[in-house]
Amino acid sequence: MAPTSGFEEMWRDLAPVGRSASSGGYFRQPWTTAESELRSWFAEECVARGLAVETDGIGNQVAWWVPAAAAGRRGVLTGSHLDSVLDGGAYDGPLGVASALAAVDTLRARGFEPDRPIGVGVFVEEEGSRFGRACLGSRLVTGATTWDEARELRDRDGVFLADAVAGAGLDPEAGLLSLDRVDTFVELHVEQGRDLVDRDVAVGLASEIWPHGRWRFDFAGQANHAGTTRMEDRHDPMLTYAMTALAANKQARLAGQRATFGRLSVEPNGTNAVPSLVTAWLDARASSDEALATLVEAVERQAHDRAERDGTRLDVTAESVSGSVAFDPDLATRLASLGGWPVIPTQAGHDAGILSDAGIPTAMVFVRNPTGVSHSPDEHAETVDCLAGVEALADVLAELARRRDPA
User: Fold this and answer.
1) Over the stretch 121-167, which tens digit does the pLDDT of each residue have?
2) Does the residue 406 lie in any domain?
3) Is residue 1 part of a domain?
4) Which residue, 304, 322, 340, sits at the end of a domain?
5) Is the domain of 314 the same as that of 329?
6) How many domains does the chain have?
7) pLDDT digits (tens, 9 = 90+) for 45-88
8) What is residue 140's three-state secondary structure?
9) Which domain, by its residues, includes 337?
10) 314, 218 in Cβ contact below 8 A?
11) Are 138 and 283 contained in the same domain?
């Protein structure tokens, strides 16, 4: 079987998988039918290129191009993820995977023979959309999260992670991917913002990832009748939540940071009942670890003050927090010089940040997003820019896969 002839053909194959007929958005949650179909697609594309695919016990995948001259050497890994947020866009994740495969095709078409192995990888549950832990696949591989901890995570339907993995035909006892042979990691990603648009360039490299995290706010009150309970007699957690959401917005705006309550659960969730419990998840991001801590502390303080006035109770739990990531500046400068690309920060989390924290030299290539919209069906990148991203990634891989020492 010959490989597909290029990026555009691969993209057409990916387009229908997990797409909602009503919204046009994508539901590619991990360990579901759509995600399993994508893993099969990836394996088929790798095999068609003569790349042996390894799938670990939770669904992480990697395939290596190892010419004779590169045998026994540590190599360059590229790739991204295939899962999506709920009702997400097409490009966040899959663009990096398809571009990695297309970059391998491009290097071969150029007649390039790497002196180091080049791998293409896929990490599972990057978005954390099902089990609430962002970059879970790469966290497990690097040891940032243990399987004993992760297996007890539950999704919105109460399904344990361990059961979801087993239900997808995978066995964590088979082990996880080893990163021992990875010398450098490069992730291509659609830009989630408008920096490249404002600069009028198609491609950029990453300088850093802002620190970010997810906090669960449990507002507890007293359930009661919506009609017979006087307003002054209520202990309504929805009011406490509503004022907290407004406070988070104000604190983030004042500090030039980011704070979003994007997910909400209400009990008993009745139209004619005062709620007994409101659970809301805060996504907060800031330009430094100190600024993030200050932002979250301010939101918590105002939430507790409001709860005291409302006669409600509040518990706050940090579910997933990632510190700031500064990518190797020398590596970024060296790679950016290949195409005169700008080096820019990102406020979004990525597997690249997890691997960087694990001590692996890491870089990111961004492809222009004409509207800046992401995590939405409106997420987009022009084909011409995607193809420019493939060429840029091929240039980066060629630079990194050339032998620079006798080892």
Assistant:
1) 999 999 999 998 999 999 999 999 999 999 999 999 999 999 999 99
2) no
3) no
4) 322
5) no
6) 2
7) 999 999 989 999 999 999 999 999 899 999 999 999 999 999 99
8) helix
9) 7-210+324-401
10) yes
11) no
Q: Which secondary structure element, helix H or strand E, spans residue 7, and what is its range?
A: helix 7-14
More confident residue, 250 or 52: 250
CB 285 within 8 A of CB 347: yes
State how far the Cα of 46 lies from the Cα of 120, in Å rounded to an integer. Answer: 9
Question: HEC profile for 377-407?
Answer: CCCCCCHHHHHHHHHHHHHHHHHHHCCCCCC
Distances (CA, A) of 393 to 101, 118, 178, 185: 10, 12, 23, 12
Query: Considering the entire predicted model, what is its pTM?
Result: 0.87
Place of tokens 């006669």: 311
Whether 59 and 173 map to the same domain: the answer is yes
On whether both 200 and 250 belong to a single domain, the answer is no
Q: Which helix (H) or strand (E) holds 244?
A: helix 237-255
pLDDT at residue 403 in the model:
64
Residues 287 and 217: their CA atoms lie apart, in Å, by 23
Same domain, 22 and 106: yes
Q: In this structure, what CATH number is given to the domain that contains residue 249?
A: 3.30.70.360
Both tokens of 166, joined, read 């087993």
Name every residue whose Cβ is closer than 8 Å to that of residue 222 and which is 6 or more positions away in sequence: 234, 235, 274, 276, 311
Domain boundary among 274, 297, 322: 322
Q: What is the pLDDT of residues 86-115, one digit of tens each?
A: 999 999 999 999 999 999 999 999 999 999
Residue 38 to residue 35: CA distance in whole angstroms = 5
